[in-house]
Amino acid sequence: MTWILDGNNLLGHLAEGEGRDPGREGLLERLLAGAAPSPLTVVFDGPPPEGRRGGERRGRIAVSYAGKVKADDVIAGLVRPGDTVVTADRELLARCREKGARGMEPGEFLASLRKRRRPRRDEKPASEGVDVEFWLEYFRRKPGR
Which of 3, 21, 25, 112 is in Cβ range 3.0-4.6 Å of 15 for a Cys bridge? Predict the structure, then answer.
């Protein structure tokens, strides 16, 4: 199961809820810091930022830029049965549900990130409710990455 995020829709939700737009980079940093589920793909409308490719990896996150087509069309083309699509766009959700995907509202997704916050390096994990996937990924990484 892949998580597919409507990047611009999520940015709009953050701007509305927090009174500021963190920008694409800010959103990606938040996703990485919030122990976002994996595998995760974020699709943004428009071209990639100057000096970036149309598709790239940011840690565990695959990032796509729709270019001249709509991000909704890219997302609908990526989605498979069992995937979860995070967007408030009802038309996009309907298209994805027809393909067997599950939908999630941006607010619900962002709340789950806060619950799954990564511990600081000097912080001992709690004995109950330990995020096993986080620690498996943590110990697979090489130092300095």
Answer: 21
